[in-house]
Design goal:
Largest sheet: none
Number of strands: 0
Number of domains: 1
Order of helices and strands: HH
Mean pLDDT: 94
Low-confidence stretches: none
Bound molecules: flavin-adenine dinucleotide
Radius of gyration: 12 Å
Strand content: under 5%
Number of helices: 2
Length: 61
């Protein structure tokens, strides 16, 4: 798993990490203190990303 310079889990901005099936959001990705609203927003975006990936799995032939 790749990490940021501060030790957070590196993601592509939608919560997807460099490890297949591993998603992260919030301070786990920054490795530094943040704010509640930023973590909540990142969590929401990551949930959409996870849902999209699961949908793609369901509909891939
Ligand atoms: C004293 C203090 C005051 C703050 N005041 C404010 C404020 O007024 N306004 C504001 O916007 N922000 C404030 N913050 C910052 C805010 O709390 C954080 O930015 C926010 O909580 C980060 O949310 P998160 O979900 O990314 O991480 P967290 O809230 O830290 O959630 C991570 C969760 O993962 C759990 N966890 C960790 N390791 C594991 C593991 N191995 N397995 C399972 N679970 C695990 C932890 O127990 C925790 O419940 C404050 C922070 C502190 C410390």
């Amino acid at each position: 798993m790749e990490t940021t310079e501060l030790g957070g889990i590196l993601t592509d901005g939608t919560g997807k990490s460099t490890v297949s099936g591993l998603f992260a959001a919030g301070e786990a990705t920054t490795g530094a203190p943040s704010q509640l609203i930023l973590s909540a927003a990142a969590g929401s975006m990551t949930a959409v990303s996870i849902n999209t990936e699961l949908m793609e799995e369901d509909f891939s032939f």
